[in-house]
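Consider the following input, taken from an annotated entry for Protocadherin beta-4 (Lynx pardinus).
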Amino acid sequence: MKTPERIQPNRQVVAFILMVFLSQACPEPIRYSVIEETESGSFIAHLAKDLGLGIGELTARSARVVSDDDKQRLQLDRQTGDLLLREKIDREELCGSVEPCVLHFQVLLETPVQFFEGELSIQDINDHSPVFPTGEMLLKIPENSQPGTLFPLKLAQDLDVGSNGLQKYTISPNSYFHVLTRNHSEAKKYPDLVQDKALDREQQPAFSLTLIALDGGSPPKSGTITVRILITDVNDNAPEFVHTPYEVQVLENSSLDSPVLSVSAKDIDSGNFGSVSYGFFQASDEIKQTFSINEVTGEIRLTKKLDFEHIKSYHVEIEAIDGGGLSGKGTVVIHVVDVNDNAPELTISSLTNSIPENAPETVVSIFRIRDRDSGDNGKMICSIPDNLPFLLKPTFKNFYTLVTESPLDRESRAEYNITITVTDLGTPRLKTQHNITVTVSDVNDNAPAFSQTTYTLRVRENNSPALHIGSVSATDRDSGANAQVTYSLLPPADPQLPLASLVSINADNGQLFALRSLDYEALQAFEFGVRAADRGSPALSSQARVRVLVLDDNDNAPFVLYPPQNGSAPCTELVPRAAEAGYLVTKVVAVDGDSGQNAWLSYQLLKATEPGLFGVWAHNGEVRTARLLSERDAVKHRLVVLVRDNGEPPRSASVTLHVLLVDGFSQPYLPLPEVAAAEARADPLTVYLVVALASVSSLFLFSVLVFVAVRLCRRSRAASAGRCSGPEGHFPGHLVDVSGAGTLSQSYQYDVCLTGDPRTGEFKFLKPIFPNLLVEDTEREIKENPNCRNSFVFS
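Applying the prediction step yields:
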């Protein structure tokens, strides 16, 4: 495309006016401060909070920090909203002797475009010592000099400013001189040697003193110079400059060694005392490098290229010294005149190379223009060709936004080449051009595609809420917004499944999260659908199935079913002393709500009143005697059995068994002290329940006894049975196995009757009844024992 050579006047004038208007209407800049030499990456301020913006808004709007100079010394952390130092800042390098030292920057935000102006004040630290230009100076003083006369000494330079800069001078103790520190109009401090009493060359022709320059730091730093003083003969007139101050203007593009001006001083003395030599007085390194002075003629010449953008003027102190050592001071002010020697600069801050067709006004690029010259040389006009559907809008100061003027039609034109031209108003005019290529993207014509049609995820139960359990992924072959995929959950096929409380999906990346802790015992697996839709118009979508398998965790401790652990009095197991080794005392029955190896239970005897007497089988919980019982074994035994599952880590439960050794079934069974204490501690509700249950049971038992007694009284064998005898006591509600092996080989029945004596509650065991003779023998026993009031059958 051919770029037009002429500049469009109308568009240039409008852009210039808008730029001036926006620059005047900008809000007050935000201000921060930082100490120089602070490490890179150090925190300056929470910029997002100061601007009233959210942290996510910085990323969404592509926030960035732009400085006025070429070096980007600041950086913005979009994730936290913090303004950080990119590199160490040397205040002396950045600002020199200028105080305050301020670094100007701008904060740029996109969509919509917004600017904020900021200032970072660099605080000085005491990192430089005062330095004299030489290590020694020679001062000639006439012997007729009067007390109180001032003699200028060489000035020390301290790159620091403020209180850290040069504050005062001192000199080594002596009886002839002291130092006076004077303030100059440019905030410089000059040392003057003050004569305290009359000099006598014949008595002391020379002095060697040490001049010390001190700054105001803590602790203060210093520099020294040796002052050699020679007492000379009388020279009573010092040179005087014809004009002071001298002022001259020099073009910044002046050639090297070109003359700047000549200074002249006169001394009315004669001979050697009237001859004058010229030199710079207390000149900085910059002045010494830029200018030179002829000691005889006083002509000042240029020795270094001038740069108006770097230094706009120089204040040069000159000195005229006669042959007698007297000197006069003068000032030369050199103004640097700007010339149009810098072409405009264009810096792209944001660029969008691809724009969807049929889109409304769209930002293509944000850029900044700058001209290092001043005056008309620094004023600029920005333009683009008129035959393109784009507009330039002044945004903030020297920032411009390139936007589309109308919706673009890809079928008409798929690519545009835009030439941005920036021209200054200097003489001659300088310009800069920058080319931007913009392509028009296509519409949404591809639906997202999942990487799998079915996903299987596994999550262990008792997970923490919001746990990431897996991801689904779908891709879209379109570009831009048409390729941005959004994920969502489909309604479950089973209306009973509370999917909304089980899982959620990240709409941006397809990550799946468990919303609550899952319980394998309640839910082993579930399925649901996931939808992936792009952001095109109209939106296209696809679906996939996700199956979640809940893995069992060892979260349930074993639960003991028998003996019952309901807080009531514990069960007591009876063991006859005649039991052999391996006799089955009881069996601990436990279950575990988990599955797999988490539900595999093992049993272990944890504590025993008499170790070695009883043992527990590890796999079935059977409690058996480990040896034959003896008369020396205690009557009451307390066993603690530990039930442990096979999970990782294993869980366990314990149960306490009370075992009572008896000589036979007729031995009275007395409750253990522990049982009585447990009964006494039972809560009232338990007592009420026990009383109610006992009442109902007693009533039922009484009815059965009455019925059986009536039947028994009709029997004719009452006399042959005799009276049942035995010790008083209660018989437990359960029987124990009396076989030698500990397991009954068949079912045994015993006919037990109560004695006819109402004063005793004794039992009498008549004889065992085998199953096939149970009915006949029972009737026969009743006939033979009419005094029995009841009959019990034990298995």
